[in-house]
Amino acid sequence: MKQKQSKFFIRTSGRRLYDISEALSEQVGTSGIISGLLSLYIPHSSASLLIQENYDPEVLRDLERFFDRLVPQGDPLFHHTSEGPDDMPAHVRSALTAVSLSIPILDAQLALGTWQGVFLYEHRTSQHSRSILCHMIGE
Amino acid sequence: MKQKQSKFFIRTSGRRLYDISEALSEQVGTSGIISGLLSLYIPHSSASLLIQENYDPEVLRDLERFFDRLVPQGDPLFHHTSEGPDDMPAHVRSALTAVSLSIPILDAQLALGTWQGVFLYEHRTSQHSRSILCHMIGE
Amino acid sequence: MKQKQSKFFIRTSGRRLYDISEALSEQVGTSGIISGLLSLYIPHSSASLLIQENYDPEVLRDLERFFDRLVPQGDPLFHHTSEGPDDMPAHVRSALTAVSLSIPILDAQLALGTWQGVFLYEHRTSQHSRSILCHMIGE
What we know:
The structure is a homotrimer.
Chain A: E1 2-13, E2 17-19, H1 21-31, E3 36-41, E4 47-53, H2 57-70, H3 87-96, E5 100-106, E6 109-110, E7 116-122, E8 127-138
Antiparallel strand pairs in A: 1-8, 2-7, 3-5, 3-8, 4-7, 5-6
């Protein structure tokens, strides 16, 4: 049994989903782990991790439309507005999605479904550099 | 330290929660792991995993009523409609719930709370065969 | 490779977020694990786990305001009311947030972001004693 830890960065430019599936495949490939578990963690409070359909890009836009309506900018409900109108909605969206995900590794590959991709979901409107931490364990 | 991977299938028939607690207990039982961690993963983009109260079935129906109102079928917000009116709501419901869960194993059993069950949450209205991946690690 | 399991308790007094970051640091510190993964699990169906901004307490209050509006007490949608008006909303809030979280351990510390805290989110209005299970694995 062995473990590997790694970290990589994604530059984001606005509120949407960024496919990180390829980057994760590379992390798994270089780990030398054939069978095990990848656990992902995002150390940010206004971005999150999401598994979603990776086929029709309209799905990702519909998802963003839904979250934008559910947690609207400028909602008078929110008192924490000092960091901009997109900040508190970003924290709520982050609470409603995931900051950690665990995906099995089988045959040296992530056991994603046929139509699944792994995405970083950026919730802020401005540019950010986001880091993603990987913990892999197995044989 | 050892690990075990396994997979099982659930046939679903419509939008509701399916209790998989017993199936998981079997997986843990046959793994020979007495103390450790079970990580579950669902490789589908329109079904998810949920821990919920397992006592009053009305809780599960209320939950479905809530999600059906929060993410309504036929919502003009959604552009991705080619796979049916329940498809895009299924992706959103999936984003709002979980695709992976990790539960401790203690004394060769899942450390679920007294009132907790583990459920597959089917978000499509038609019949589906869903697979669930298990990764168990421990001693 | 080694693993440690532990459990600790939090007394809650009403619907809000309780910072458990320090308690988790202690668990990691006494485990002797320098590099690895902490997996948390909450064995309750009306409380959950959340990573949130830990700087401005207004963020936590805004979050509670949001969930209180999204899943209102006394909603006629809910049939399961025998355990009080806050019970079914608690189950829904629990479904929308997390019951398990995995956070990497680096240099004998949790790899939380600068502005991240780990919180227990109590969804019931009365006092409760909540337990949190920790599974740590690594070297």
